Amino acid sequence: MCGTDAPDAAAGPVSNGSHASKANPASSPYQNVNDFISNVARFKIIESTLREGEQFANAFFDTETKIKIAKALDEFGVDYIELTSPVSSPQSYEDCKTICGLGLKAKILTHVRCNMEDAKKAVECGVDGVDLVIGTSSFLQKYSHGKSIAIIKETALEVIQYVKSQGVEVRFSSEDSFRSDLVDLLTLYKAVDQAGVNRVGVADTVGGATPRMVYDLIRTLRGVVSCDIETHFHDDTGCAVANAHSALEAGATHIDTSVLGIGERNGITPLGALMARMVVTAPDYVINKYNLKALKEVEELVASAVQINIPFNNPITGFCAFTHKAGIHAKAILANPSTYEIIDPAIFGLTRYISINSRITGWNAIRARCEQLGLKMTDDEVKEVTAKIKQMADIRPLAIDDTDSILHSYHIELQKKQAQQV
Ligand SMILES: CC(=O)SCCNC(=O)CCNC(=O)[C@H](O)C(C)(C)COP(=O)(O)OP(=O)(O)OC[C@H]1O[C@@H](n2cnc3c(N)ncnc32)[C@H](O)[C@@H]1OP(=O)(O)O
Ligand SMILES: O=C(O)CCC(=O)C(=O)O
Ligand SMILES: [Zn+2]
Predict the structure, then answer these.
(1) Whether pLDDT at 4 is above 90
(2) Count of other CB atoms within 10 angstroms of residue 161
(3) Can you say whether residue 397 is alpha, beta or left, with left for phi > 0 and alpha for psi between -120 and 50 degrees?
(4) Which of 11, 33, 37, 232 is 20 to 30 Å from 91 by CA-CA measure?
(5) 387 and 244 in one domain?
């Protein structure tokens, strides 16, 4: 279907029905449960395409590209934009300063190791906030930086005090949180909270956490710290979006994303997929806060910058995300799009497409196409021409033009017959 039947709003029968007018959103079982701890309807996004995303295998962002991406993310309405550490290279340092000088609405963060030298470089760049990170699992303590929890705590408190003294936001995050000792973690978070951090960060660095593990850890942490809680989920086991949702339900306040999920290995929670999830959970909040119609453009910009295609099954913008094919689906979609769509594509400035070119096409979809083409036929005639389309589709894949040709020829034959009868 995909090769010969590419969605094109002008080509196939497009149902203009809108979800809002045909379904009562208040009746959705997927929406926000209003418990007091959940932040699903008031979360913030820390967009890390220009930090975590730069760790994606294909990524090379020159200054101009970074500026374009930062501006596009700002237009989209993300709350924060996180940049690569300025100690990474001289150009990273310059780019960090340049982006801080753009005057964007989004706050600019940079992500550095939890030590004084890195923090000083970060502050020098003029960022709004510094995201401090250090591994707390025994793996990272032993094989990465070699520091004990006591030293981590002592250093963290010094660095936090310094960043705060510069009037800059500060966050402390424990890399590899889920493989860290819970007592170590809570002791550290409590200490940095008391030291006045704006946020603590919980990171599933290796992508092994499940939504239930996330809920339990964040719920526990929520009872220990009073500051905001940022969360960061890798997608190695396919749970990054679900984990983000679970974190918000448990009281996390901020979610890290990157466009198309790009990042180290197979990346993190994708911005678009998170929007898809959250627009279903908390439609009013998401629609009013984010410029959802700009999503496709942001994704295309980043996809082109890192030389990848948008995956076919990407939520929202995958080429067939709003394509309906089977006859049973098509009939119901034409009557009411909510039957087989959880998200109205119009919210993202997109249209749905109904495929009419296969052996599984039904006569209701063909009737809609005939109406669109202005070909008048009785129901029995539509059924007869549908059978002809199926006959042909049994032999080879059809393009929309093939189906339309069958419809036009059949209609011409009908007209000839009618003329003969007169
Ligand atoms: C899970 C994550 O994604 S965390 C963020 C990852 N981001 C980055 O790595 C930013 C890009 N990195 C870089 O440009 C470089 O790694 C730099 C500039 C940070 C450091 O480069 P180098 O000095 O050449 O060290 P290298 O990369 O080989 O090793 C990392 C060093 O940081 C130390 N380190 C690692 N994490 C931390 C931390 N959180 N706090 C302090 N030191 C740390 C390691 O012990 C190691 O130190 P060493 O020089 O004594 O061996
Ligand atoms: O700083 C953080 O919270 C996350 C760092 C990171 O990229 C990770 O742990 O995967
Ligand atoms: Zn990461």
Answers:
(1) no
(2) 12
(3) beta
(4) 232
(5) no
Residue 88, ligand 1, Cβ within 6 A: yes
How far apart, in whole angstroms, are the C-alpha atoms of residue 177 and residue 89?
Answer: 27
Least Cα distance to 202 among 260, 246, 158 occurs for 246
Main-chain phi, psi angles of 175, to 5 degrees: -60, 145
CA of 261 to the centre of ligand 1 (A): 22
Give the residue from 70, 206, 199 showing the smallest Cα distance to 133. Answer: 199
For residues 66 and 244, give the distance between their C-alpha atoms in angstroms, rounded to a whole number: 26
**Catalytic residues, which ones?**
329
Pocket of ligand 2 (CB under 6 A): 52, 111, 131, 133, 173, 175, 201, 203, 205, 232, 234
Q: Give a yes or no: residue 30 inside a domain.
A: no
**What is the rounded distance in angstroms from the CA atom of residue 157 to the CA atom of residue 109?**
19
CATH code of the domain covering residue 124: 3.20.20.70
pLDDT at 422: 83
383: domain range?
323-421
Name the token pair of 110. Answer: 């940079």
If asked whether residues 45 and 176 sit together in one domain, one would say yes
Looking at all shown ligands, the one closest to residue 122's CA atom is: 1
Structure tokens belonging to residue 73: 């993310």
243 shares its domain with 359: no
SS3 state at 18 = coil
Domain endpoint, select from 277, 305, 333: 305
- SS3 letters across 309-351: CCCCCCCCCCCCCCEECCHHHHHHHHHCHHHCCCCCHHHHCCC
251 lies in a domain?
yes
Cα–Cα distance, 345 to 347 (Å, whole number): 5
**Cα–ligand 2 centroid distance for 417 (angstroms):** 71
Q: Among all ligands shown, which has an atom nearest to the Cα of 173?
A: 2
Question: What ipTM, to 2 d.p.?
Answer: 0.97
Asked if pLDDT for residue 237 goes beyond 70, the answer is: yes
**DSSP labels, 360-415:** T--HHHHHHHHHHHT----HHHHHHHHHHHHHHHTTS---HHHHHHHHHHHHHHHH
- Single-letter residue type at 145: H
What's residue 28's pLDDT? 87
Amino acid at 1: M
pLDDT at residue 1 greater than cutoff 90: no
Token pair 């239930």 is found at 212
pLDDT at 230: 98
**201: Cα within 13 Å, side-chain hemisphere:** 24
Query: Cα–Cα–Cα angle for 55, 60, 65, nearest 5°?
Result: 115
Reading the block at residue 122, the tokens are 């970060």
